[in-house]
Amino acid sequence: MTFQVELVSPEAITYSGEAEMLVARTVEGGDIAFQPGHVPFIGVLAVWSVEVIRPDGGRDTFAVHQGFVQVAGTKISILSDVSEEATEIDVARAQTAKDNAEAALTADSEDQDAAGALGRAELRLAVAGAEQA
Amino acid sequence: MAGGKERELRRRIDSVQNTKKITRAMELIAATRVVKAQQRAREARPYAEQITKVIENLAAGGAEVDHPLLRQAEKVERVGVIVISSDRGLAGPYNSSVIRAAERQVQNARSEGADYALIAIGKKARDYFTFRKYEIASYTEGISDNPSYEDARKLADTVADLFISGSIDRVELVYTEFLSMGSQKVATRRFLPLEGTDTMAAVGSGEAGATDSFEFEPSPEAVLAALLPRYVEARLFGALLESAASEHANRQRAMKAATDNADELITKLSREMNRARQDAITTEIMEIISGAEALNDDDQSEEIAPVGAEN
């Protein structure tokens, strides 16, 4: 049994496909996996990866920077301002962003923007790394 | 000689022809842009719909929160008016109608005894309101043509901050709805405070089925609190996209009218010019004939006379 997964950004539907399982992380609860038949669910996602396990056993990994997950019936929607597929991530750029953010943080440890940027850059690297392994 | 009029008409025709080339090019550009803008507006719809659906489900799940974006002021002291216009003109009545609707909102606010805060998007709105000595609280340009979500987010944040800090108590959004290629309409919508979740849910499509009892994580209230700002952004983004599509559709129509008009003008002027040329030729022939007649008065007059009679 499978269900329909949709990744919806404000600009467009960025991903749509069948899946056997979806793994995400919510702001408080840690990782959560959904399989077909899951009870209707709405959650706030943490800045973390979302993994879609396709029926053929392959997996698509996304870096999701904030968003929501809604499970209703046989459909899962991920609503997110920014989400990137692992294969699309520019590792070099993420690395630079991480270095810059770290430098900004050492200069001013209260810098919220830099802390956010660091989190995003680390996630990008983690997701891209998982893809390469 | 009479050739002067012909030359003058020729010049006018050339100038109209040049104008026609420009309007024709603008029409074609607007035509491709309107298709793109329309597609973007269509692609952005699922997100707004899904967010509305989540809110709907939250309302069904009984979440009711005291979020600052839902604050209903007891007395409205300052009304924010967001007006979405374009940076460039030559778009027919597009700008003037949306600006007029915004001005009406400002006047409504005044007649209620409230102050106003204009949030202008696009050069045209700014020019209009500064010329008439209205005060503009916030101005953004360069985004109405092809808005990005980032633009919408920044703008929504500015407006939400003003609202949450209490410096404005109500926000009206004035933009142009894109109904179809042939029909766009100025719309004025209550932007903030958001209506209660119940009303939002009632407006939504209700496809997900309110009978499902949802689980929420962390809690319905926390989800809603995280969701409402996104909802505000998505609504503003949708309005920006629709306005952009409307702008291009209006420009296309205006430029098509201008091109057609130029065609008509060229035909009319060409006729006039041809007549002027014929007149000039006729006059010239007449002059030659009468000159010739005067020279050989006696023997040639019989042959030439019929030609002169024809004229």
CATH architecture classification name of the largest domain in chain A: Sandwich
CATH topology of chain B: Pyruvate Kinase, Chain: A, domain 1
Q: Can you give the helix content of chain B as a percent range? A: 55-70%
The CATH superfamily of chain B is ATP synthase, F1 complex, gamma subunit
Radius of gyration of chain A: 16 Å
- Calculate the terminal CA-CA distance of chain B, rounded to whole Å: 19 Å
Number of strands of chain B: 6
Please report the first level of CATH classification, the CATH class of the largest domain in chain A.
Answer: Mainly Beta
**Total number of helical segments of chain B?**
7
Widest sheet of chain A: strand order?
2-1-9-8-5
Largest interface: A-B, 25 and 33 residues
In short:
The complex is a heterodimer of chains A (133) and B (311). Chain A has 133 residues and is α+β, with helices and mostly antiparallel strands. Chain A has helices at residues 91-107, 112-132; strands spanning 3-8, 13-19, 21-26, 30-34, 41-45, 48-53, 59-65, 67-72, 75-79, 82-85.
Tell me about this structure.
The complex is a heterodimer of chains A (133) and B (311). In chain A, a hairpin with a 5-residue loop joins β6 (48-53) and β7. By secondary structure, chain A is of the alpha+beta class. Chain A has helices at residues 91-107, 112-132, and strands at residues 3-8, 13-19, 21-26, 30-34, 41-45, 48-53, 59-65, 67-72, 75-79, 82-85. In chain A, 35% of the residues are buried. Helices cover 29% and strands 43% of the residues of chain A. Helix content of chain B is 62%, strand content 14%. Chain B has a five-stranded mixed beta sheet with strand order 3-2-1-4-5, sandwiched between helices. Chain B is elongated, with a radius of gyration of 32 Å. The model of chain B is unreliable at 204-211 (pLDDT under 50). Classes of the chains: A alpha+beta (133), B alpha/beta (311). The A-B interface holds A 6, 8-13, 26-29, 32, 39-44, 68, 70, 72-73, 77, 79, 81 and B 40, 43-44, 46-48, 50-51, 53-54, 57-58, 148-149, 152-153, 208-209, 212-218, 222-223, 226-227, 230, 233-234, 237. β5 of chain A pairs parallel with β6 (215-217) of chain B.
